[in-house]
Amino acid sequence: MKSSRYTKMIRSVMQIIKRARIQPYLHKTSNHVYTVWQHLILLALRQYESKSYRMFTSFLEECFGICKCLGLSKIPHYTTLQKSAARLDIAMLQKILESFVIHLRIKKIFAGIDSTGFGHGQSSYYYTKRAKLRRKFVKLSICADMKKQIICTVKIRHRQRHDGIDFEPLLKKTNSILPIDTIVADKGYDSEKNHVAASNLGITSIIPPRYADVPVYKTRGHYRKMLKRKGYDHKSYHQRNKTETIFSVIKRMFGDNVTSRKISTQNRELMYRVITYNVYRITRDCLLILYDFYTAFFHR
Q1: Which fold has domain 107-274?
Q2: Which of 10, 146, 186, 234, by CA, is between 20 and 30 Å from 113?
Q3: Are 87 and 158 spatial neighbours (Cβ–Cβ below 8 Å)?
Q4: Would you say the pTM of this structure is higher than 0.90?
Q5: Contact at 8 Å (CB) between 41 and 22?
């Protein structure tokens, strides 16, 4: 089952890369030993296995099926993967991320926005707690489709900022890929500005207003007053909990810390994790359908 998962993941990533129209080589004068596609797939598999670059190259020496499926004549050195991970552009990775939505043929997106933090730093948790040091973290904000639980767009920050700042950029970027029907978010994104941004794009926004005990006449904003007067669909709003499920799956599978030291490589590492999660989500659904068909056909 695990070998079929690897094969399915490789084929799915290959389809996504082709749909994103990524060139096989970054430059015509490159050595043409490995393609960009092979590097992207290997970096995604490294995140899936949660291994270091050294351990992952040792892992590839035992996996003949992966090398055969990728068409690798020889296993790349671990420094080759390190340099490739730092070389690939963020815009290219974002383009690949957007291709997942088109690949699934979603007509309209039922979007959810949320954020979480990933720790980084070489000092241990015990040392920082005893020394009373402030733990550093990287903030990841996502806009995901709640029906397919696929991440559409991301925003990465390295400083403490309010969640509402990233609402409008994520909303516009996702809506440019495919039209959004409804957007749901928690009370941290409660702002009249966010409601107006969604309304200007023709999107229904469900963001519960903070301070529910405050009377309507003391509440600022037209849309915030309307939510207090008429209420909102709680069943649709609770679909927002799937964003927490997405973060839980990413942290349980790939860890809640980034291992890179530089800001640029930290951004790329998180992008590889998000891409790997989307691939896992697609292949997981396909394998579950095949497993259900197998059990229904052979055990009836």
Answers
A1: Nucleotidyltransferase; domain 5 (3.30.420)
A2: 10
A3: no
A4: no
A5: no
What is the DSSP code string of 80-135? Answer: HHHHHHHHS-HHHHHHHHHHHHHHTT-SSEEEEEEEEEEE--SS-HHHHHHHTPPP
Nearest to 230, CA basis, from 210, 213, 208: 208
pLDDT in tens, the chain (300 residues): 455 667 777 888 888 888 888 888 887 777 788 888 888 889 988 888 888 889 998 888 887 778 888 888 888 899 999 888 888 888 889 988 888 888 888 888 999 999 999 887 666 666 566 655 566 788 999 999 999 999 999 999 988 888 889 999 999 999 999 999 999 999 889 999 999 999 999 999 999 888 878 888 888 888 888 888 888 888 999 999 999 999 999 999 988 888 888 888 889 999 999 999 998 888 875 443 333 433 443 344
**Domain boundaries in the chain?**
2-88, 107-274
Do the strands 180-184 and 109-119 form a parallel or antiparallel pair, or are they unpaired?
A: parallel
CA 68 to chain centre: 28
Return the HEC string of 215-269. Answer: CHHHCCCHHHHHHHHHCCCHHHHHHHHHHHHHHHHHHHHHCCECCCCCHHHHHHH
